[in-house]
Amino acid sequence: TMPKEPAVLRQNILDTTAAILACGIDPKKCFLFRQSLVPEHAELAWILGCLTNVPRLLRLPQWKMKRASQNSEGTVGLLTYPVLQAADILLYKSTRVPVGEDQVLHLELAQDIAHHFNKKYGEFFPVPKAILSEL
Question: Are the CB atoms for 70 and 79 separated by under 8 Å?
Answer without folding.
Answer: no
